[in-house]
């Protein structure tokens, strides 16, 4: 089997036979809600060439044959909300811990290992290195998932994604940091709607696959109509502009219209409260990211269905965060330690303990109020919003917010946790898997090539040793991962 520990990995994969035949597998078809047992799939030149029973398909003599009798096969999974450059903790202060390429390769391996062959990468990395890394994977220089990347986010000054929020430095210093570290790539700040089209054109020229921005809402949660918390931060010398900045609906509309004019989709980060989602849906964004701390109204869900607006709940990240605050030792469980190596694991433990102490002592009202909302999130906001979205026919897409710290601390390779929550809150297993295959491919605009096991589509496949229709957690029982008709991960080579 293929090993991926050194430079021989690339050559090993490139030398694999042009024809790969998989026999004896049970194909899970989420559209038909059916299993096609004891099937044979022939992959040729990176695409699915033939599908059928062993009796009806002749196997080419020069093919590599994998007898995987009794296993279950799915299209390669798609994670629609990833921060590939980050390890599951906020590591902005440790830019030089290791090379960015080394970090991206490690996270790529974790991603592929989990059965995810395509990701939609969000902002968060420094500069445009994700775009470069995406191209290097496509050229065969590195092994990694298929990447659709946004590049920097679009924000109002001091807004949720603004560079001024992350690094509130004078313009001269920001320019210096930009030259040294490329941190200006975190965001492009927009003052007026008239600026938007030119900015979108520049991003398209740079090679972005979609545009990331935010819904209206202040950059720090709960500040709206919360004079007590606002006063707390003002007394501690927090710049009021960081508390008051909110995406302007006219600018969001200009972003959406300009992006669509240039053939790019728009993803809007939900700033915790439902009202901003309603405004973003009204101007025509293509997807809403995250679950709000509140209930989305019926009219908004209806409009989302009518306009084809997808919802990426990233449900697991808040659940994981609140579990860690209740029990920090959970961050030291084996699956996390394997995915988050040192020094990042220690950084995460310290950050979680700091948040925990701020909540226990009441010294930071934002974290206190956020934590206090978690029972409502678990019992009402998440299950009721999911139920209403399903009832309205909204296309729900899986994304686990892999890589980010803050209010999640989710390592790469944990997409199955998101699908566990979908099943817990009303979806059947077929529907949950669909959120990470068919639905995700439609959102990403790649449904003609990915998302299902069909003739002519790219041979991106994941083979499981157990049936996820009986237990959705068995999506984590990955035995082989195939991308473009080549084996890119095998549990037998670990």
What does this structure look like?
The protein is α/β, with parallel strands linked by helices. It has two domains: 8-75 and 452-493, Urease, subunit C, domain 1 (Roll); 77-444, Alpha-Beta Barrel (TIM Barrel). Helices cover 39% and strands 18% of the residues. The strands form four sheets. Strands 1, 2, 3, 4, 5, 15, 16 and 17 form an eight-stranded mixed β-sheet that branches. It has a four-stranded parallel β-sheet with strand order 11-12-13-14. It has a three-stranded parallel β-sheet with strand order 6-7-8, with helices on both faces. The longest helix has 19 residues, at 374-392. It is globular, with a radius of gyration of 22 Å. Mean pLDDT is 89; it is low at 1-9 and 179-184.
Helix content: 25-40%
Share of β-strand residues:
15-25%
Given as residue ranges, the uncertain stretches (5+ residues, pLDDT < 50) are 1-9, 179-184
Mean pLDDT: 89
Number of strands: 17
SSE blueprint:
Elements lengths: L7 H7 L4 E11 L4 E11 L2 E7 L10 E4 L4 E4 L1 E6 L17 H14 L2 E6 L7 H10 L7 E4 L3 E3 L7 H4 L4 H11 L5 E3 L6 H11 L3 E5 L12 H9 L4 H5 L4 H13 L3 E5 L4 H10 L3 E3 L8 H10 L2 E3 L2 H12 L7 H6 L4 H18 L3 H8 L1 H19 L22 H10 L4 H7 L2 H7 L16 E4 L13 E6 L2 E5 L4
Parallel strand pairs: 1-4, 1-5, 6-7, 7-8, 9-10, 11-12, 12-13, 13-14
Antiparallel strand pairs: 1-2, 2-3, 5-15, 15-16, 16-17
Helix pairs in contact: 6-9, 10-11, 12-16, 14-15, 17-18
Compact summary:
By secondary structure, the protein is of the alpha/beta class.
Task: Please give a handful of descriptors for the protein shown.
494 residues, 4-stranded parallel sheet, TIM Barrel, alpha/beta, 17 strands, 8-stranded mixed sheet
């Amino acid at each position: 089997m293929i090993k991926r520990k050194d430079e021989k990995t690339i050559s090993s994969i490139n030398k694999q036979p042009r024809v790969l035949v998989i026999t004896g597998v049970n194909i899970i078809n989420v559209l038909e809600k059916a299993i096609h047992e004891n099937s044979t799939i022939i992959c040729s030149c990176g695409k699915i060439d033939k599908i059928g029973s062993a009796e009806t398909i002749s196997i080419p003599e020069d093919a590599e044959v994998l007898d995987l009798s009794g296993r279950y096969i799915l299209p390669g999974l798609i994670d629609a909300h990833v921060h590939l450059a980050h390890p599951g903790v906020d590591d902005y202060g440790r830019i030089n811990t290791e090379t960015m390429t080394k970090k991206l390769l490690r996270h790529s391996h974790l991603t592929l290992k989990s059965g995810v062959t395509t990701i939609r990468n969000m902002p968060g990395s420094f500069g445009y290195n994700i775009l470069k890394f995406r191209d290097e994977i496509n050229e065969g220089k590195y092994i990694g998932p298929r990447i659709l990347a946004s590049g920097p986010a679009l924000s109002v000054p001091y807004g949720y994604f603004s560079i001024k929020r992350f690094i509130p430095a004078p313009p001269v210093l920001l320019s210096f940091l930009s030259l040294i570290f490329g941190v200006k790539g975190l965001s492009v700040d927009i003052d007026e709607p008239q600026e938007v089209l030119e900015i979108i054109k520049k991003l398209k020229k740079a090679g972005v696959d979609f545009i990331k921005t935010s819904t209206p809402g202040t950059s720090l949660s709960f500040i709206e109509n919360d004079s007590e918390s606002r006063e707390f931060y003002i007394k501690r010398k927090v710049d009021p502009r960081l508390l008051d900045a909110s995406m302007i609906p006219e600018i969001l509309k200009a972003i959406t219209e300009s992006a669509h004019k240039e053939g790019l989709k728009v993803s809007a980060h939900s700033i915790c409260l439902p009202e901003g989602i309603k405004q973003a849906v009204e101007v025509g964004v293509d997807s809403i990211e995250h679950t709000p701390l509140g209930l989305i109204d019926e009219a908004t869900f209806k409009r989302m269905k009518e306009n084809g607006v997808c919802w990426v709940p990233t449900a697991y990240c808040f659940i994981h965060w609140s579990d860690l605050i209740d029990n920090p030792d959970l961050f030291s469980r084996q699956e996390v330690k394997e995915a988050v190596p040192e020094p990042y694991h220690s950084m995460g433990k310290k950050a979680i303990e700091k948040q925990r102490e701020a909540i226990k002592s009441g010294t930071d009202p934002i974290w206190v109020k956020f934590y206090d909302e978690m029972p409502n999130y678990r019992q009402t906001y998440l299950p009721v919003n999911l139920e209403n979205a399903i009832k309205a026919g909204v296309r729900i897409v899986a994304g686990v917010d892999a890589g980010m710290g803050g209010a999640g601390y989710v390592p790469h390779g944990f997409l199955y946790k998101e699908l566990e929550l979908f099943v817990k809150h009303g979806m059947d297993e077929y529907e949950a898997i669909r959120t990470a295959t068919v639905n995700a491919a439609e959102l990403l605009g790649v449904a003609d090539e990915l998302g299902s096991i069909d003739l002519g589509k790219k041979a991106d496949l994941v083979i499981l040793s157990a049936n996820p229709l009986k237990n959705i957690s068995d999506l984590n029982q990955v035995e082989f991962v195939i991308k473009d008709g080549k084996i890119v991960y095998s549990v037998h080579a670990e």
